[in-house]
Amino acid sequence: MTIQIDPRTAKQLIQLQMMNSIDLQGTALQSASTSSSEDSSFNQILQQMVNSTSTDATSTLESESTDLASVTINGQLWQLLQAKVNAASAISESSSNPHITNTTNNHAVSATAYDNYIKQASTTYGVPESLIKAVIDTESSFDPNSLSSAGAKGLMQLMDGTAQGLGVSNSFDPAQNIDGGTKYIAYQLKRYNGNISTAMAAYNAGPGTLQKLGITNDQQLLDKLSLLPKETQKYITKIARAQAKYEV
């Protein structure tokens, strides 16, 4: 089931999240004495989002950067949404992707042909497997021979200069590419203190682009999202949606 986020709903979610700080694991940081009214409102809005099957929001996101700025969620709310949505309904991947294996009991099993490499890279660099798979899915649709018009190569679309700096001699070798790409993700996560959306923006647009705009965390990213290239704006949302598919 694909979840479409209505921009107006997303704005309400963001406002509620700002009133109730959440850490990167989706855990409330406020004390247990916090009023339950805000949480109840959040859950009600989220349930409406989960039940919605309209495709209108998708076209809105792709055509209006101002709405996209409202619905591209910072790393904190992103994690909370994933936890809430996964608890409410398991997300099944489309059978059109030959690299994904769907299973019974309505639980999505994100098995790929590159799981061993992904698991090893995740362990080595401390990057969640779901995030690695989300980047591979978004960048190359799990095609190890993918080559972009700009010269980006392999599963995670590494440019030659970047690959060389990461110790990758053959970007079309899945083992090398996944290791190098994951190392780069880990570097960006460390650079931006675990802010996932900001790290993903840097992966797509380059750290220099964010530096020029004075973006160092997810809140600043949200505030200045409309100043980023539209490709990067869409990329952040795609990564969030893809990671949700691979959460176990």
UniProtKB/TrEMBL annotation:
Name a Pfam family for this protein: SLT
Q: Which PROSITE patterns match?
A: TRANSGLYCOSYLASE
Identification of the protein by name:
Soluble lytic murein transglycosylase-like protein
Out of the domains of life, which is the source?
Bacteria
Protein's organism: Paenibacillus shirakamiensis
Q: Which residues cross the membrane?
A: none
Residues in a coiled coil are none
Domain Transglycosylase SLT, first and last residues per copy:
117-213
Query: What family is reported?
Result: Belongs to the transglycosylase Slt family.
